[in-house]
Design a protein that fits this description.
Number of strands: 12
Order of helices and strands: EHHHEHHEHHEHEEEHEHEEEHEH
CATH class: Alpha Beta
Number of helices: 12
Radius of gyration: 17 Å
Structural class: alpha/beta
Helix content: 40-55%
CATH superfamily: Homocysteine-binding-like domain
Shape: globular
Number of domains: 1
Length: about 300
Amino acid sequence: MLHDNPVQHPSFPPVAVLDGGLGSHLEAIGHDLSGDLWSARLLHDHPDAIRDAHHDYFASGADIAISASYQLSFDGARRRGLSDDDATELMRASVALAAEARDEHRPDGLVAASVGPYGAARADGSEYRGDYDLDRAGLRAWHARRLTVLAESGADLLAIETIPSRTESRALLELLRGTGVAAWLSFTVADGRLRTGESLTDAFADADAVDEIVAVGINCSHPAEVAGAIRAARSVTDKPIVVYPNSGEHWNRAQRRWEGEPGFAPAQVSRWLEEGASIVGGCCRVGPAEIAGIADVVRRHAPAT
């Protein structure tokens, strides 16, 4: 990526609706996502399914789509027998498919290229612990090439998401600083802290110091974490806040099933907007119906023009 470029800020609506969980929606409509590449496998085997899933979210009222590149990495592609050139083309295709759906349903919408954590490519759940085998320099080297490809893919911005630790977020911030590439940075949290137990407020402060970060927030976390995360962000930054939690269910690895109460009530979404969130959507197990509900709440809270 080139350095010392001015940041190209995307044109967010005053309050934007983000899409929902791409992988869980694909599973809900019958696609098998087992394997290390998860939903990214369909970029290679069934790209129409990815485009159709984006269609569903835009039709439900989403303003922003996140590409299917979350779990796609060069080493993960090699394990599947794909070349680095193949991986590059799949990353570019993930953005192009989201853009096709956007252009049909919401020409003024945005496409965010997903930059998932190192743990997602390991496919071992370590993004929810942050117990990696790479230090900051190693993470910077691991992320660098993929970040460049996605930054040059034609996306409106990067969605750096589900980051569990300051070690990984700092590595990514070092790569972004001075490039002019707009991105949001979203952490996964538990009990008001990063998955590693580090301070969420400190992590937001790190992000605030980098011009390329145009929004901060959390994702792939329980809905009960959202309000506290918004307050933590507001204490250190004036940047827009993005929140897209899971449904509230949790995955029981032993029983291989989702458990808990699904969904979050409109009153919760209203509270997040009142607390200061300006980009709201969903992650795992949040589908088009739930995004339609969020869009309805957002419309009712939208400032008069």
